[in-house]
């Protein structure tokens, strides 16, 4: 029995979802379905030029899975082009990557980039280096796991008097745990 398909992370939804040969009515064409995650694999490998390992990480899948998805996608696109079929982009098991928002201080251009794609080096519009982030930062969801250390802390543990059985009080905007208090 095959393993269940994992949800794949994509960064963009397609702007166009249907392609067909010119001057042939759609009703007369055989239609090939390309899943959205297959299109994402083509985008990462062929348009962005990423190596399979980097592209697989961007989609949150193994390198082997990425290779299979890309092979399937390329085969479908080739068949549509060579045999004159319509190509419909829809479906697949995927989720959208969490995005970060930026604003250029030079030209006022605002843009978004997916988490995990690295820090922008410049504004995509003017190339300016003076930009800042405008969102509140990462939210903890399926793309951004919240890691806890074995003893329940975030690196501020017993050495700061914040042992496992302590509760909190406000201290400079940080909630500090006091022993015996209820949450």
Task: Give a topology summary.
Blueprint: E1 8-10, E2 18-19, E3 31-34, H1 36-47, H2 52-59, H3 63-83, E4 86-89, E5 94-96, E6 99-104, E7 110-114, E8 131-133, E9 169-171, E10 174-176
Helix pairs in contact: 1-2, 1-3, 2-3
Question: Which key phrases capture this entry?
Answer:
183 residues, alpha/beta, Arc Repressor Mutant, subunit A, 3 domains, 3-stranded mixed beta sheet, 3-stranded antiparallel beta sheet, 3 helices
Description:
This protein has 183 residues and is of the alpha/beta class. The model is unreliable at 139-177 (pLDDT under 50). It has three domains: 8-96, Arc Repressor Mutant, subunit A, CATH 1.10.10; 99-133; 149-183, no CATH class. The radius of gyration is 23 Å and the shape is globular. It has a three-stranded mixed beta sheet. It has a three-stranded antiparallel beta sheet with strand order 7-6-8, with no helix packed on it. Strands 1-5 form a two-stranded parallel sheet. It contains three helices and ten strands; from the N terminus they run βββαααβββββββ. Helix 1 packs antiparallel against helix 2 (52-59).
């Amino acid at each position: 029995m095959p393993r269940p398909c994992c949800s794949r992370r994509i960064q963009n939804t397609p702007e166009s979802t249907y392609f067909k040969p010119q001057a042939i009515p759609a009703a007369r064409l055989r239609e090939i379905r390309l899943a959205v995650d297959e299109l994402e694999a083509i985008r990462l490998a062929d348009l962005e030029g990423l190596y399979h390992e980097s592209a697989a990480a961007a989609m949150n899948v193994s390198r082997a899975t990425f290779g299979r998805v890309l092979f399937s996608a390329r085969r479908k696109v080739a068949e549509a082009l060579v045999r004159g079929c319509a190509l419909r982009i829809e479906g697949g098991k995927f989720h959208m990557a969490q995005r970060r928002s930026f604003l250029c201080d030079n030209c006022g251009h605002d843009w978004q980039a997916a988490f995990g794609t690295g820090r922008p080096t410049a504004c995509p519009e003017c190339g300016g280096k003076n930009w800042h982030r405008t969102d509140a930062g990462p939210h903890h969801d399926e793309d951004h796991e919240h890691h806890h250390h074995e003893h329940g802390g975030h690196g501020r543990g017993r050495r700061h008097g914040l042992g496992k059985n302590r509760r909190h009080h406000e201290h400079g905007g940080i909630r500090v745990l006091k022993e015996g208090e209820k949450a």
